[in-house]
Amino acid sequence: MSTTSLPLEGTYKGDPVHSSFGFAVRHMGVQTFRGTFSEVDVTLHDGTLEGRAKVDSISIRQPEDFRNHVLSDEFFAADKHPEVIFRSTSLDLGGDGVATVRGELTIKGITNEVVATGTWTPPTQAPWGETQIAGLELSADIDRTQFGMAWNAPLPKGGNILAEKVTLTIHLELQQQA
After folding, report:
1. How far is CA 136 from CA 1, 114, 177, in A?
2. What gap in Å lies between CA 53 and CA 178, rounded to an integer?
3. How far is 89 from 115, CA to CA, in rounded Å?
4. Residue range 101-120: average pLDDT?
5. C-beta of residue 70 within 8 angstroms of C-beta of residue 59
6. How far is 52 from 21, CA to CA, in rounded Å?
7. By C-alpha distance, which of 104, 67, 107 is closest to 84?
8. Whole-number Å distance between alpha carbons of 38 and 121
9. Cα dist. 112→24, 40, 169 in Å?
10. The whole model's pTM is what?
11. Per-residue H/E/C for 44-77
12. What is the C-alpha to C-alpha distance for residues 135 and 119, in angstroms, rounded to an integer?
């Protein structure tokens, strides 16, 4: 693990109420489908960011056949791989508020390197005591086919129903732990 800058020393946990993991993918060539995972766990400990999201907590609830398709082997294979997992290999939080996080993302049991960029907000004291809170906003583009999610179908006038590029968005409110 390399860390260029370590302004968040110690251990921070992601506040599950004020943090989110999302994704966006172009659908039918005309709009972007967005979703989130509601059950997430994030820890930043001495420069290493680790996160897990329960696949079953995906925001798709209805219609049931669409939800089942996304949880099936053609996409997440949730019964075999119930979590999406990330572990950073480097974390650069620049003095100008720019953040770059490199790490390994595991989806469907397949691990690939990903680089996420965005911004960070330095710690400030929370109004309810001595707790310090900080913010981290990141995004990264991945190719879903590199994670074994190759399902697609052709559109009548050309192209495919689903784009291969998926944009991941991570919004974290981090609370310092004692």
Report:
1. 19, 16, 16
2. 24
3. 10
4. 98
5. no
6. 10
7. 107
8. 23
9. 19, 20, 17
10. 0.91
11. EECCEEEEEEEHHHECCCCCHHHHHHHHCCCCCC
12. 8
Q: How far apart are CA 121 and CA 97, in angstroms?
A: 6
Domains and CATH numbers, the chain: 2-176 (2.40.128.110)
pLDDT digits (tens, 9 = 90+) for 66-93: 999 999 999 999 999 999 999 999 999 9
Single-letter amino acid, residue 130: E
Token pair recorded at residue 61 = 């609830």
| 175 contact partners, CB below 8 Å, separation of at least 6 | 12, 13, 14, 15, 126, 131, 132, 133
For the chain, first and last CA: distance in Å? 23
Q: Structure tokens of 57?
A: 């907590």
Six-digit token string for 159: 């192209």
Question: What is the C-alpha separation between 53 and 44, in angstroms, rounded?
Answer: 15
* Structure token digits, residue 39: 């059950």
Place of tokens 């609830």: 61
Lowest mean pLDDT segment, chosen from 3-12, 13-22, 27-36, 44-53 = 3-12
DSSP at 144? G
